[in-house]
Amino acid sequence: MLELLGAHASHGGVQRFYKHDSKVIGLPMRFAVYLPPQASQGKVPALFYLAGLTCTEETFPIKGGAQRIAAQLGMALIAPDTSPRGAGIPGESAAWDFGVGAGFYVDATEEPWARHFKMYSYVRDELREAVLENLPVDGERLGIFGHSMGGHGALMLALRNPEIYRSVSAFAPIAAPSRCPWGEKAFSGYLGENREAWKAYDSSELVAHASRKFAEGILVDQGLADQFLAEQLYPDVFEAACRAAGQPLTLRRHEGYDHGYYFISTFIEDHLRHHAQALFA
Asked: Does residue 105 come out as left (phi exceeding 0), alpha (psi in the -120 to 50 range) or beta?
């Protein structure tokens, strides 16, 4: 059962915010949905957007500027929260890059995180099913994209589940999380110290074993003034992995752009149109 928390008219459609009791997470979860005007006439394609560290389900709808183009194209936008909240785990809010607001879109196996921090299964299964059961969304035309930690999540979920997601893109993704401080901290905490287990959530490892290529290509935008580029993001590693695997990739590098939502809002139209090519084909 979805509880409607708010609804706001936007570009002929409606921006909604929902809460529901998640069986996977074991706690209430929130998510945002933008329904374009075309959704009043029938089911529409949808993009799942995964946000980055410290963000919530409100960040992308407020800052991304995507509703205007989504309304033109006739696409729904779904944005979940970035972690469980209210789990009561000691120290869960002690760090901005681990715990609350930093679920990393993995299914944790280590205590005390394993009970609630199951964002991979939540996004792939429970959230998707809740959307398809309650909203006018076409389950055969789904794409996924995201930013930073969410860019990692989008690439990883798409590469592991190409039968679900027909298109994928990312803004400044954590593209090789097993090699960077953010990823090492998250993976060791949620998954343990066995680095082999980390590979199941590392896009630069997964692309070599993906069951299906995204023939229309993966789109990644990266700002060259991004303060996290050198230490955390490693787009070059993902680029090399795609090249070796024969996975088409468009990696665009932009002078002067940093890691924030001014960057995302500048190129958001390109991403929605990239997905539209696959979802309306």
From this structure: left
Candidates 22, 148, 167, 169; catalytic one:
148
Query: 26 — phi, psi (to 5°)?
Result: 80, 15
| Pairing relationship of beta strands 137-147 and 44-50 according to DSSP bridges | parallel
Instruction: Please tell me the distance from the alpha carbon of residue 136 to that of residue 53, in angstroms, as a whole number.
Output: 29
Catalytic residue among 116, 152, 259, 275: 259
In the 8-state DSSP scheme, what is residue 255?
T
Choose the catalytic residue: 226, 271, 274, 275.
Answer: 226
Q: What is the DSSP string of 160-179?
A: H-TTT-SEEEEES----GGG
Q: Which residues pair with 102 in a beta bridge?
A: 99
Q: Each residue of 115-151: pLDDT tens digit?
A: 999 999 999 999 999 999 999 999 999 999 999 999 9
Rounded CA separation 99/78 (Å):
22
Q: Does 226 participate in catalysis according to the annotation? A: yes
User: Is 259 a catalytic site residue?
Assistant: yes
Give the separation between CA 71 and CA 93, rounded to whole angstroms: 37
CA distances from 13 to 46, 70, 129, 172, 280 (A): 14, 9, 22, 29, 19
Please tell me the number of Cα atoms within 13 Å of 272 on its side-chain side. 23
Residue closest to 50 by CA, chosen among 250, 203, 191: 203
User: What is residue 228's DSSP assignment?
Assistant: T
Is 81 annotated as catalytic? Answer: no
pTM comes to 0.98
